[in-house]
Amino acid sequence: xxxxxxxxxxxxxxxxxxxxxxxxxxxxxxxxxxxxxxxxxxxxxxxxxxxxxxxxxxxxxxxxxxxxxxxxxxxxxxxxxxxxxxxxxxxxxxxxxxxxxxxxxxxxxxxxxxxxxxxxxxxxxxxxxxxxxxxxxxxxxxxxxxxxxxxxxxxxxxxxxxxxxxxxxxxxxxxxxxxxxxxxxxxxxxxxxxxxxxxxxxxxxxxxxxxxxxxxxxxxxxxxxxxxxxxxxxxxxxxxxxxxxxxxxxxxxxxxxxxxxxxxxxxxxxxxxxxxxxxxxxxxxxxxxxxxxxxxxxxxxxxxxxxxxxxxxxxxxxxxxxxxxxxxxxxxxxxxxxxxxxxxxxxxxxxxxxxxxxxxxxxxxxxxxxxxxxxxxxxxxxxxxxxxxxxxxxxxxxx
Length: 399
What we know:
By secondary structure, this protein is of the alpha/beta class. The relative contact order is 0.12. It is 35% helix and 18% strand. The chain has helices at 35-39, 41-49, 77-84, 96-104, 128-135, 154-158, 169-183, 202-208, 219-228, 243-256, 297-309, 329-343, 354-362, 377-383, 389-395, and strands at 15-19, 26-27, 30-31, 53-57, 87-91, 110-114, 140-143, 165-167, 189-193, 214-217, 259-261, 265-269, 278-282, 291-295, 312-316, 348-352, 371-373. The protein has 2 domains: 6-175, Rossmann fold, CATH 3.40.50; 185-383, Phosphoglycerate kinase, N-terminal domain (Rossmann fold). Helix 9 (219-228) crosses helix 10 (243-256) and helix 11 packs parallel to helix 12. It contains 15 helices and 17 strands. A 6-stranded parallel sheet has the order 5-6-4-1-7-8, sandwiched between helices.
């Protein structure tokens, strides 16, 4: 693995600085969705069970390096206390006197929440002095915020070079899932990449065609690839100026042994609205006045056949305009197929990215995938083959 878990670090009697992601929605000062708070519970409880004293480091919103009262972490204390079942004390800064006093007053089985790390301009600059001031509060560092691991900030990367460091349970689960999907996967490996634009996923596509056996392309991206094949896509969303790039990706896939799957039939409509009149046509027969808004039934059958042959699946992005029915049909059907194969033990399925999470939740199958990452940007950068500073720092750890 190259990084330590909580089981490999002595925590007994030590103050443990825990970087978490508790960027939760607030309304009138109250947490309206505590999912991210609930996800850190195993890590915090395990630290306490091993005799450690957890001190939480987190950011909230984008205060741009200065204190912004509306972005204080103080309102999160009640939700944290409820989820963890212990007393949670709030410190009005993440360094200096307020933080030191709160940590010094800690008893066993209590938690301290430090104020928003981004209230300091040095945080997003990965300032060494800020990292050292944070590190001075504890003896061990635990990173449990994979979602922030693509940022080289003082609290996500800097501290890991100062204190003995380990991955929290959430980080550990994420890294193991990703390793099973692209690091040392069971083959054949299939990937689904959807979304609106090829231009935003060039690095992703370039990395995947070298690592996966089958690549299913959907959404508006697929339209651009159809254009690259010389097909007319009518009024569909497509990046015509990216056609040459798409053609180059198709050509490169031919040299890497990756089979790219584009829709053979599509669902078209004259207007993008719920309940709009639709028809299914061959991918090369889109009417000039119509828009391609989903993959067709033959395309879905092809995708199901790919899933049947695969042992590992990575999914990022919907197959159509899933937000509005009936253009969610292909995404829903493919997601159901992946979930069924996963439950039958025939497929390891890892999915992530904002639209992907929303689409799989809408399809009612999110909990049936092997792993669903809510990390957004970090998940995408991992799929692109990029080093994540927060993870790399843990892997360089020798303490």
